Amino acid sequence: MKLIIIFGSAAVGKMTVGQELTKITDLKLFHNHMTIEPVLDIFGYFNTSAILKFREIVFEEFAKSSIYGLIFTCMWALDEQSDWDYIEHIKEIFKDSEIYFVELVAPQKIRLQRNTTENRLNNKPSKRDIDKSTQLLINDDKNHRFVSYDGEIPFENYIKIDNTNLSAQEAAERIKEIFCL
Fold first, then answer.
1. Engineering a disulfide at 133: which of 63, 70, 111, 127 sits with its beta carbon 3.0 to 4.6 angstroms away?
2. What is the pTM of this model?
3. Beta carbons within 8 Å of 152's beta carbon, 6+ residues apart
């Protein structure tokens, strides 16, 4: 089994690249809003505990399956030890799998444009309040670091892709080729 973790700043294109990667591989997509949106609908707020438990169930059941592989997308605050610990936790669940890390990067100006795309808004209802979503993106950028320093990510199967001028399809093809998926 394979686990591909696509991470990066808000609106960098993680879900969209993941969607394209599913089209050209046998991987299944589990983007972070697949747990966030139902929890927001049920609780009316960002219930971190419920979101993490929901993800945990999916991870554990998927890791026990014979399915080819999973793409998981997330924001990883590289300046927060708890986020590093969470990545290690995911790795432990998938300890019998091949794990690949894909970091996507693009400048804030580009991500603010992507924040309003039809695909994003269709798949992430909580982002439909554009003003609120824009402010959250700006605040996240101000309060955390979502772009790694050179040499910071210690994993063997890791690539960093600047997708500023790449389509999601081009980024997905690059990932597939580099990791032989």
1. 127
2. 0.95
3. 78
Q: Please report the pLDDT score of residue 140 as a whole number.
A: 96
Q: What is the pLDDT of residue 79?
A: 98
Angstrom distance (rounded) from CA 71 to CA 112 = 24
**How do beta strands 27-31 and 158-162 pair?**
unpaired
101 forms bridges with which residues in the sheet?
5, 158
Q: Dihedral of CA 56/62/125/84: which sign?
A: positive
Query: Is residue 100 classed as helix, strand or coil in its secondary structure?
Result: strand
The beta-carbon contacts of 118-125 under 8 Å, at least 24 apart in sequence, are 119/15, 119/16, 119/19, 120/11, 120/15, 120/16, 123/15, 123/31, 123/33, 124/15, 124/33, 124/36, 124/37, 125/37, 125/40
CB of 11 within 8 A of CB of 164?
no
Low-confidence ranges of the chain (pLDDT < 70): none
Q: What is the pLDDT of residues 107-127, one digit of tens each?
A: 999 999 999 989 888 888 888
Distance CA 90, CA 85 (A): 9
Contact yes or no for 163/17 (Cβ under 8 A): yes
Helical packing angle, 168-179 and 14-24, nearest 10°: 60
